[in-house]
Amino acid sequence: NGVSLVSNIDAIDQIKTKKVMITAHGAAQKTKDKLEGAGFTVYDASCPLVMRVHKTIQSMVTKGYFPVVIGQQDHVEVKGIVGDLEDYLVISGERDIKKIKIAGKRKLGIVSQTTLQVEKVEHLIGKIRGEDYVDEVYFVNTICQPTRDRQVAVRDLAEQVDLMIVIGGYNSSNTKKLVQVCNEKNIEAHHIESFSQLEKNWFYDKKHVGITAGTSTPEHVINETHKAILQIAEEIDSEPAVH
């Protein structure tokens, strides 16, 4: 369709059009400036909640805090958040907390990738606050509200079902977190991108099935999956009982 996907600003020579769109994950301002400087027309579709993270961490730096991002180092959103920072740390898990001591930073300004699991971020913040080499932590919870709401809803729904179907892209961070929530609740969960991936054998001996989806999953995909599950249930009900 004439669309080129470029994940690295150094690969702009591969772009075959003079129009460039920044995805919802956002990008560093220096990236946008470089594109415009190269003669591209830039259409910025960055999610406002992601741009809030950019503004928040820049404000922290201005106030004298050392910037720390809780998130996945190689995630495009995180790359955009840190892209305009001179010095920073990305914390992905407990093993990374020691980086703070090594860097010798004691006054920290912390934000998070918008699609992370709420409990994981809160756990890491608690661990960081508890380190004796940290004097001050200024934390702003930047997990987006729709992501939080979905995680809370899935946690509640998991108490009522014995199977969960999670719909969303395999590369979607927030969808993966929904699967993780199900796993933590010891509920059988299957991550699919389309109703065509449903397998009949998942539904035998299941009385209550839950459906959830990532924030970017189109409504029609959810509806198609719901319809397909009902069809599978009818087929199973019509099968002769095995004695």
Averaged pLDDT? 92
Low-confidence stretches: none
CATH class type of the largest domain: Alpha Beta
Query: How much helix is in the residues?
Result: 25-40%
Tell me the distance between the termini. 55 Å
Number of helices, counting only DSSP H or I runs of 4 residues or more = 8
Q: Output the CATH topology of the largest domain.
A: Cobalt-precorrin-4 Transmethylase, domain 1
Count the domains: 3
Q: Label the structural class.
A: alpha/beta
The largest sheet has its strands arranged as 4-3-5-6
| Residue fraction in strands | 15-25%
Which architecture of the largest domain would the CATH scheme give at its second level? Answer: 3-Layer(aba) Sandwich
Net shape? flat
> What Rg, in angstroms, do the CA atoms define?
22 Å
Structure description:
It is a single chain. The protein is of the alpha/beta class. The protein folds into three domains: 9-44, no CATH class; 48-139, 4-hydroxy-3-methylbut-2-enyl diphosphate reductase, catalytic domain (Cobalt-precorrin-4 Transmethylase, domain 1), CATH 3.40.1010; 145-238, 4-hydroxy-3-methylbut-2-enyl diphosphate reductase, catalytic domain (Cobalt-precorrin-4 Transmethylase, domain 1, 3-Layer(aba) Sandwich). 39% of the residues lie in helices and 16% in strands. The protein is built from eight helices and nine strands. It has helices at 29-37, 48-62, 76-82, 98-103, 118-129, 145-157, 173-184, 219-238, and strands at 19-22, 41-44, 66-70, 89-91, 107-112, 136-139, 163-167, 189-192, 209-213. The radius of gyration is 22 Å and the shape is flat. The mean pLDDT is 92.
